[in-house]
Amino acid sequence: MLNSGSAADFHESQQSLHFVLHATASPPNRPRISCSGQREARQVRLPIYPVQLLSRMANKKNRNNKRRSTHRHVFKKRSLPPCLVKKKKNEKPSNVPLEGNSSRIINLDKLCEYTEQLNAHSSHCNGSVRLVGETRNGLASILKGQCEKCNHTITFQTSKKVKGPRGYSRWECNLAAVWGQMSTGQGHSQLEESMSVLGVPVMTKASFISTEKDIGEQWKRELHQLMVEAGREEKRLAEERGDYHEGVPAVTVIVDGGWSKRSHKHSYNAKSGVGIIIGKETGKLLHIGVRNKYCHACATGISQKDHLCFKNWSASSSEMETDIILEGFLEAEKVHGIRYTRFIGDGDSSVYPTLLQCVPVWGHVIEKLECANHACKCYRGALEQLVHNNPSYKGSGGLTLKIRKKLVSGARCAIRMRSKEADTAKALKALRRDLANGPSHVFGIHTHCSPDFCTTAQQHQHQDRDKSQEHQDQQQDHQDQQQDHQDQQEDHQNQQRDHQDQQHEVQDQDQRPEQRFQDQELEQQQQDSANGELKDSESEEMYLEGM
């Protein structure tokens, strides 16, 4: 921000005032207020207020005329700077003298352009340029500078101009300020209060409302485009996985509603409600609706032509969510080209029957999946009701607040863990067992706990695994010992066999000479018999030849 006046003057206007009360003789008992800093009989120090707030205090009606007159006397001495004087409605920007004790919001790019203009002028004139006036338009200003030597005028815009949502040219700082107020849930009064402390003038309320309408329409168009793109993505994913109903892609959605005030199980009288439908696969918004039962302008008597009325509901507040969700289901095929055949929701008893009855063609095939968060919420409510009906369950060792929270937390953890498993039937069976075992787990009995999320069961599992491994190691050692014993027996048998072989060899050696002699005799006999037969054959041949 660029301060166009003296910093000392601005800080002086923000200082706290010291009011000293003097008892005067004439008239009696009438306090006199002065802006003196001297110490006197009785001195009261008021807190620091912005000048604009002090002005409102001065203009406010007071029953005590004497005190009201003294306040006016004080503020007459310390008048407000012109930038903080409230403009009249629909007041057009005009050329005003440059003010001291005030600040402006300056765009750095525009400041660089202004500096270049000053340098270009000073290069051939060598004169000094001073600010002589400005034209204000909300937070933006057109400052007017004049050369003291040649009286040349140079204008300086503190902000850029951009194209607004409806095509109109608007100052960027005004558009950004209204955008920020809408994003934080505030309005013109809050912007005026915060800027008054900085000494920055703001746009009129009419200009603020006009800009607010433009931004709201732009937000609505952008939101609709995003929802259409999310519907296309959900449709593409349904086609890829082959999920159809009568040739139309079918998807699963998440539905929920909310109100402007907490009304769970009591006082269903909220003035405003909202409902949403989110695609399960993409997690993106597919439909949103708002129902309002109250309009401030209508309640204060302003005619319909003078304001944009947002009142669109006159039935019960509890029926707002059902109507919005039904509207989204009816528009699903028309807007996105898909059908919501499955939805995840809370335990609202009116939404599901309404969808089955009022959605044409495919309403009868809609399936409802219970929301895990709402199931845990109902679980907690049942525990609270159980303790309320049975006070004896409270106390140490019973259903204390800590125990109830642990029960709900354990149930939510089991649901989260089992939802990640691919085998649905097996996961449901395990989830049923985990939920039934929840109280035992919380009270320290971990016999049937699943090691998937119970640390004690994990420790027991590790201990059992270590014991089993130790037992297996012992069995292996025993088997090794048995194998060693068998090896020793085999070695012993081999030794005995070797000993027998040695004995046989020794016996063979002892019997070998006799056997050799017998073999020689037998061989000699065989030779002798062979020689005899030969002689007989020769003699027979000689005999035959002689005949």
Secondary structure elements and pairings:
Elements: E1 2-3, H1 7-14, E2 18-23, E3 31-34, E4 42-45, H2 51-59, H3 65-77, E5 95-97, E6 103-104, H4 108-125, E7 129-137, E8 140-147, E9 153-157, E10 161-163, E11 169-171, H5 172-183, H6 188-198, H7 205-240, E12 244-245, E13 248-259, E14 272-279, E15 285-292, H8 296-299, H9 320-330, H10 332-335, E16 339-345, H11 351-358, E17 367-370, H12 372-389, H13 401-418, H14 424-436, H15 438-442, H16 455-546
Parallel strand pairs: 13-16, 16-17
Antiparallel strand pairs: 1-6, 2-3, 2-4, 5-7, 7-8, 8-9, 10-11, 12-13, 13-14, 14-15
Helix pairs in contact: 2-3, 5-7, 9-11, 12-13, 13-14
In short:
This protein has helices at residues 7-14, 51-59, 65-77, 108-125, 172-183, 188-198, 205-240, 296-299, 320-330, 332-335, 351-358, 372-389, 401-418, 424-436, 438-442, 455-546; strands at residues 2-3, 18-23, 31-34, 42-45, 95-97, 103-104, 129-137, 140-147, 153-157, 161-163, 169-171, 244-245, 248-259, 272-279, 285-292, 339-345, 367-370. The protein is of the alpha+beta class. It has four domains: 18-77, no CATH class; 95-203, no CATH class; 218-370, Nucleotidyltransferase, domain 5 (2-Layer Sandwich), CATH 3.30.420; 378-453, no CATH class.
